[in-house]
């Protein structure tokens, strides 16, 4: 499933934007990956190194798997920014949000069929 929320000002903390977006309610029962900025948000985030203690072997493996998936997501986002229609939408207020919502809806419909 793909879901998108309205954009927030750049100075808004990621965790606050996530909670305010309402997406956390829509994603109940779904595994959501996040980075270290989303601690205590109910997402799967990388394990953090504790002072003077290395990560456990299982935690290292979890972090490696997490990195692989997150890298794929970041590559998709980067690729989407290359599409002219999305580049043009970024310049028109809420245009990008509507374009991403449309792409997410089409993707979800394709998954459901």
Describe this protein with a few key phrases.
0% strand; mainly alpha; 53% helix
Write the layout of secondary structure elements.
Blueprint: H1 14-21, H2 23-26, H3 57-80, H4 84-89, H5 95-112
Cofactor: a divalent metal cation
Protein name: DDE Tnp4 domain-containing protein
InterPro entries: HARBI1_dom
Q: What do you see in this structure?
A:
With 113 residues, the protein is mainly alpha-helical. The chain has one domain (14-112). It contains 5 helices and no strands. The mean pLDDT is 84. Residues 4-108 form the DDE Tnp4 domain. Keywords: Metal-binding. One of its GO terms (molecular function) is metal ion binding. It comes from Streptomyces humidus.
> What is the 3D form?
globular
Q: Any low-confidence stretches, pLDDT <50, length ≥5?
A: none
Helix count, DSSP H or I runs of 4 or more residues:
5
Biggest β-sheet strands, sense, barrel: none
Name the assembly state. single chain
User: Structural class from helices and strands?
Assistant: mainly alpha
End-to-end separation: 13 Å
Mean pLDDT: 84
Percentage of residues assigned to helices? 40-55%
The overall number of domains is 1
Order of helices and strands: HHHHH
Rg over alpha carbons: 16 Å
Strand content: under 5%
Number of E strands? 0
Task: Briefly characterize the structure.
The chain is mostly helical. The chain is 53% helix and 0% strand.
